[in-house]
Each structure stands twice: as C-alpha cells, then as structure tokens.
Write a structure and sequence with these properties.
The chain is of the alpha/beta class. The protein is built from 16 helices and 15 strands. The strands form 2 sheets. Strands 2-3-1-4-5-6-7-8-9 form a 9-stranded mixed beta sheet, sandwiched between helices. A 6-stranded mixed beta sheet has the order 10-11-15-12-13-14, with helices on both faces.
Length: 402
C-alpha cells in the first residue's frame, strides 16, 4: 500500500511540475515519495535482473554514465538511469517515478546510476551494487568536502559494498583502496600520456601508488583513441580528461557483457553532450550551448574547450559557490570577452575576469535580467557556462525542461 501511494502521489506531483513549472523542481516528487515509502528505490532496483551499476567520483560521472548507457543500449539492453544527473537520493527516487509501475517495479534489464560522491556511501548501505566505477578524486569544492580525503573515504565505502569495481588506475587516491578489492580492474592513460604534461592532476596524496592493471587505455593517435586488447576506438574529444570517460565506460561495459567492436565504434562516433555538459538546447528561439561547471577543474576544462569565435558568451556563478575564492584558480586569459556575467556571485566572477584581462560586458546578478540581455545579443555560437544553482534558476526561468 505504501508503494502504491508513493508512486501515485509522486507521479501526480511530477506531472503537475512538468506542466506548471517546466525546467525546475525535478527532485521534489522523489523527496515526497521517499518519505511515503523509503523502500521504493530498493524495490525498483531489485526488479532489474542484471542488477545495479554505479558511477562516482569528483568529475566525469555524467559523461561516463551516459556513455555506458549508450554502449549497453547498443547491445540491446534496456537501461534504467538518471539522465538529468539528479544523483542524490531524492533525485534517484524521482528517476524511479518516471519509469515505475504502481507496484514500484521498473521494466529494465539493468540500472546504471550516477552517484554523488558525497552521498554514495549512504546509498551503498541500502543497495546491492554489482559494479562500481570510480573516475577520480580532485581537490575541489573544499567548502563542501573539507578535504579530498573525505571524498576518498566515501568512494572506498562504495567500493567495499560492491561485487566488482572499475577505477582510474592513474589516480592513487583510488588505487590505494582499489588494490585490496578482490575484483578490481583499471583504466587509464598509456605510459607516454601518463608521464606527459597533458596528464590530468589529481588530489594531492603523499602515499604509495599501488598498481591496478589497465585493461583499457587512452592512447594519442590522431587525437585520442581507446585501446582494449587489439581493438582501437576513435573518440571525438580533444583532451585526455574527456577520453578517460570513454575508457571508463568501455572497461565497465566489457565487465558486464560481451562487446561487439562495430557497435562500440558506432556508439563512440555518435556521442552527444549529456545534460548541461556541452548540451545543445533550444532557448528563446535559438540553439544554445550549455556547460555546467562545478569546480576549478571543470571550469578550466570548459574554458579551454571553447571555440575562438564563441559569441555571445555568458558566465553564471550561483549561490552554490559558497567560497568564490576558487574562481581565482581558473585561468580565464584565453577569453577575449564575456558578454554577460550573472548569478549570485556575478560581481566576484566579473572581478576575476577583469583581472585576467577579459573584457566584461554587463554584470547582471538577477537571472531574469541576464537571460533577457543575453537573448538580445548577436552571435552564431551562443554559449553559457554556469554553476549548478545558476543552471537550475536559468532553466526554470527559460522553461527549458530537464
């Protein structure tokens, strides 16, 4: 009875929000459903015959999740996932509400879920995990996590609750706990990339670096390719950080199913930006490139990826940036002009841009004013970089569905 009530009320709430508040509030129905039936998520996942796969880490979770889902779907599996990156408990409940019947069951073969690195250990206490994928540990969001060691502890707890794990073998923060797991496989950069200047930098750690054999590697060959055994798969990305997401997804998929090389190649060549990660969305009558930035690493990566002719450009720093001082660790010097700076921390971001020698157009903290000003600007490649809080407020204001 609890399940029936939770699903019924949750679905109705979800419908009303989609109708009357398009672009916002997707986690609220899940929060209500979780209060009515705390076991709903457990029941839904248990209805997937091939079990649960989770992806966590500081960065790369959404892209890795999306790639793994596409690989499994290309091999005819029906996958339950959380595509809007609602990766904490109430968001997962909301994802269940979208797919579940009134008995709380979901008609899928396997569940592949992105997990917030801060909430993952708690979720791991409740759910049986068949496979966990760990992307990296970065020195970021210190106001939230205090120290990267806390993130590592959370990920280690997920690992200990998982039957099998796949981890980035280049990151010693991960291999230090993965090395003791009975079923651990690795992915990472080839030896030459690993020792090069382009190799990603992970959270500082003075401990030993246990070796986890890399079953899948990123190699530099006409861009970046993914090597698994004798197979080579091209990627459309231009940085090793992004190529590692492909490697992680491939390593995980190979642990779950027998792969068809032709289907893998086709999947990799047809990938598109996931929710707010280099996503193209129709906003105010034109296609706009949306990029979520949550920490210094992702902000830097997105700034570096922007084309030279990007215009108009809007950067938005919301209230989720509790300590704006980390904005000063991002190198914005490659940007010529930012047309609009917006969000709760707009003035802090505008100051940082000015010191970096970047021309700043308008500074408009209010989302409505910023959206209106941005819509009037000319340019063939409109692009927005925003933090999570600014993203939610902007999508809600412009009624861009999640």
């Amino acid at each position: 009875m609890r399940t029936l009530l939770a699903v019924s009320i949750g679905k109705l709430l979800r419908l009303f929000i989609r109708i009357f508040r398009r672009g916002g509030g997707s986690a609220f129905p899940g929060l209500i459903a979780s209060k009515i039936d705390p076991q709903l998520l457990i029941k839904a996942i248990a209805s997937c015959p091939k079990g649960l796969v989770v992806i966590s880490g500081s960065a790369g979770k959404s892209s890795t999740t999306s790639l793994l889902v596409k690989l499994l779907e290309a091999h005819s599996l029906k996958v339950f996932t959380n595509p809007s990156t609602a990766n904490i408990k109430q968001g997962l409940f909301s994802a269940v509400l979208k797919e579940a019947n009134l008995a709380g069951k979901i008609n899928h073969d396997i569940a592949v879920l992105e997990w917030d690195e801060g909430h993952g250990a708690m979720l791991a206490e409740e759910l049986n995990i068949n496979l966990a994928i760990f992307t990296n540990v970065l020195s970021d969001q210190l106001d939230r996590f205090v120290d990267p060691e806390l993130v590592t502890e959370k990920l280690a707890a997920i690992a200990s609750a998982s039957e099998q794990i796949v981890c980035n073998s280049d990151d010693k923060n991960l291999t230090q706990f993965a090395a003791s797991h009975q079923r651990a496989i690795g992915f990472g950069l080839s030896d030459d990339l690993r020792s090069s200047d382009v190799a990603p930098k992970y959270a500082l750690n003075f401990g030993q670096h246990p070796d986890i054999v890399r079953s899948v590697q990123v190699i530099a060959d006409a861009g970046f390719q993914i090597a698994m055994g004798s197979e080579r798969f091209k990627t459309p990305v231009q940085s090793p950080e992004l190529a590692l997401n492909y490697a992680a997804a491939l390593a995980a998929a190979s642990s779950l199913i027998e792969l068809d090389a032709t289907k893998v190649a086709a999947t990799f060549s047809n990938t598109q930006g996931v929710f707010a990660r280099n996503e193209q969305a129709q906003i105010m009558g034109r296609s706009v490139n949306l990029r979520l930035v949550q920490n210094p690493t992702s902000f830097q990566l997105n700034v570096d990826e922007l084309p030279k002719d990007v215009a108009p450009l809007m950067l938005m720093a919301g209230s989720d940036i509790h300590d704006p001082s980390w904005l000063w660790t991002v190198d914005f010097s490659a940007l010529k002009k930012v047309d609009v700076v917006a969000g709760f921390n707009a003035y802090e971001l505008a100051l940082r841009l000015s010191v970096a020698g970047v021309e700043v157009g308008e500074v408009l903290p209010e989302i409505s004013e910023a959206a209106r000003a941005f819509s009037k600007l000319d340019g063939e490649n409109p692009t927005i970089l925003f933090s999570a809080d600014a993203m939610r407020r902007f999508r809600r204001h412009t009624q861009v569905a999640k």
